[in-house]
Request: fold
Amino acid sequence: MMDQAQIKLTVLYSFIFLIFFWSLSFGVYAWMNTFFGDQAVSRFEIRPKSLFFETSDSSKEPFSDVVMDELRTVLLMADTTLLFFIPVISWILTGKTLQPVKTAHNKEQQFFADASHDLKTPLTILKGEIELGLKKRQTVNQYINLLKSSKEEIDRLVDLTESLMFFSKDQSEGQNILFSEVDLTDLVIERIGSFKPLAKTKKIKLSFHPALISVVVFGNASLLRRMLTNLLDNAFKYTSPNGQITVKLSADSNLSKIMILDTGIGISKQDQERIFDRFFVADSSRSKSGHGLGLSIVKKIVDIHHGKITVESETGRGSAFTITIPKFMPNTEKNLS
Ligand code: ADP
Reply:
């Protein structure tokens, strides 16, 4: 599809450039003919020797004819050369112009392929389970198990759909996100509260180290909540029972810093470079439920807040995600220190 577009654009550009240069040549020739040709012959007696061809008796030819012959030859040669060069130059130019579009197109194709694959897997499992339930009569317990497993797949579908909606919303309404003063301490306390039951079930120690000063940023509360949820969700997903998850908040006059540390499986050095890519799932975590969208959403939210996210991790020992968000937005006078 992109190659076809490049060919069409090359033909169009070549046509436009050739028409332009040919018209220019014609104009130059016509102008020289009108304003220079006849006057030159009457005013000057000098007859330059032709650079390109030998005339049998050039001394008898009027000066204007020699000049016009010369000019015609030069213009014809230039126009013929352009006939070969312009398509090549147009091809190179369109290639360069289309490169960002090609990259975006390939990314989009990859995104749709990954999204369809992730949507299809739970649907296939769901279909198989329903077919199994309908095939032969099951006991009540078997039906309950089937329903439980079907619900898990539906939860995965809902989670994936929400993540996909986030990306589509972000693309269409990115400029309309509402910002206000958000107290990060309150937000973290609220999130920790909602993860406490899970910490109890998984026997994981969950602790919070608040900052010594109030940590207020200029941001979008709902996005920041989602960011914390995704990071805590991952920390719980990849930390074994008896492990530890800690959230630390700190701030100085310009930046607020959130750290989420866990004692989980950790992330290898090579995976650390890709974990923020959409649909990336490390081989070590394939058994866990996840679509590889959580951290790319977190990264997008951090970007929206003009912040930075970094990860330090060691396999088998745990991970530490650090987010820094400026207290004031660029281009605003509002300082919230
Ligand atoms: P997923 O939904 O699969 O967790 P994410 O985008 O949230 O997708 O994470 C991408 C990958 O990064 C995960 O598949 C996992 O391998 C790795 N990862 C993220 N957070 C952690 C963590 N706290 N500990 C270990 N690995 C992690």
About this structure: The radius of gyration is 35 Å. The mean pLDDT is 85. Residues 234-235, 238, 262, 264-267, 275, 280-282, 285, 290-296, 319 surround adenosine-5'-diphosphate (CB under 6 Å).
